[in-house]
Amino acid sequence: xxxxxxxxxxxxxxxxxxxxxxxxxxxxxxxxxxxxxxxxxxxxxxxxxxxxxxxxxxxxxxxxxxxxxxxxxxxxxxxxxxxxxxxxxxxxxxxxxxxxxxxxxxxxxxxxxxxxxxxxxxxxxxxxxxxxxxxxxxxxxxxxxxxxxxxxxxxxxxxxxxxxxxxxxxxxxxxxxxxxxxxxxxxxxxxxxxxxxxxxxxxxxxxxxxxxxxxxxxxxxxxxxxxxxxxxxxxxxxxxxxxxxxxxxxxxxxxxxxxxxxxxxxxxxxxxxxxxxxxxxxxxxxxxxxxxxxxxxxxxxxxxxxxxxxxxxxxxxxxxxxxxxxxxxxxxxxxxxxxxxxxxxxxxxxxxxxxxxxxxxxxxxxxxxxxxxxxxxxxxxxxxxxxxxxxxxxxxxxxxxxxxxxxxxxxxxxxx
Length: 416
Known about the structure:
Blueprint: H1 2-18, E1 22-25, E2 29-33, E3 38-40, E4 42-45, E5 52-61, E6 66-71, H2 75-78, E7 82-84, E8 94-96, E9 105-113, E10 119-121, E11 126-131, E12 133-138, E13 152-158, E14 169-173, E15 176-180, E16 183-186, E17 195-201, E18 204-208, E19 212-214, E20 218-228, E21 232-233, E22 240-248, E23 253-260, E24 263-269, E25 272-273, E26 279-287, E27 290-293, E28 297-301, H3 310-336, H4 344-348, E29 372-382, H5 389-394, E30 402-411
Parallel strand pairs: 2-11, 21-28
Antiparallel strand pairs: 1-4, 3-8, 5-6, 5-9, 7-8, 9-10, 9-11, 12-13, 13-16, 14-15, 14-17, 17-18, 17-19, 20-22, 22-25, 23-24, 23-26, 26-27, 26-28, 29-30
């Protein structure tokens, strides 16, 4: 900046001495990084008796061959990227914000005075070159894919510096600043080093390089098994085992292993596995860089007799209680109920037992009047049709279907 100011002062003094029409561009060649700001230093001279009315900047295009002028009066109306930072005396410098590749080319200055013929264009102009920041990648282990433990060096280059690393840079990872300097050293890399890297000019963060993507590959990590619904299940129910692992590139193969009394058996493939029985299981995840085993999970399958659900047990208990209550009620009702024939047919098919007291028989003598009588046994024989008790008592001598057999033992009240 001091060099530019000193140059303008010298040009200004030269113009005053000469007192002639002139536009001086110093330097004539300017390089700027895309996204940064570029200043084109300029000074102009004219006779002292004239006054500057208007100033303009224009870019000379090769196709078509014409000059586009930008005036200080309508500068803000056209675009805010172009800023006239000079004056209407002798400083005609121009500043371009966030330069683009379209700004590349020759830029010229023109001014007009109050004299009818007093306009002048500095035809030599100043040439602007717009370049990108670039990143060169150096891999000590060659150009193969980066993996854990490798080292990578990233160097930010400004095409305006030539082969020299003169500019100061800021490095970004995934849009966040991480360090400063022309070179970023990534050594003994791990998965945390994967990401998008860019560099920019320290004083112009908008002047950024393209993105360099670092992808660090690694073997499976954090391999684990999840169990659903639980590691203990009822007989006949399904248990689902799911294997998960973090790897780059992603896991290519999942292998399920069962451990039975020290024997290791492959029992399935794929991230999801449904075992047929209980036991110890683990999964192995692998890709081209290696493999990793999960921890062992132990599944327990409950016996079938213990698998009755709570609802089934409740229903069975309630049913047993109801059955018991019903049986008890029926027995009690049977004991209390006296069966009475309801129809004539039922009465005809009913057998009756008639008990006669021993003292009612005629063959017992008077000598036994005061004696106690004891029934020893009685046998009754019935035919298929019986009459009612009243009919039997009324027609006892005429009913041939009734047989009475009675045996009695008499005891005298006053034995001899």
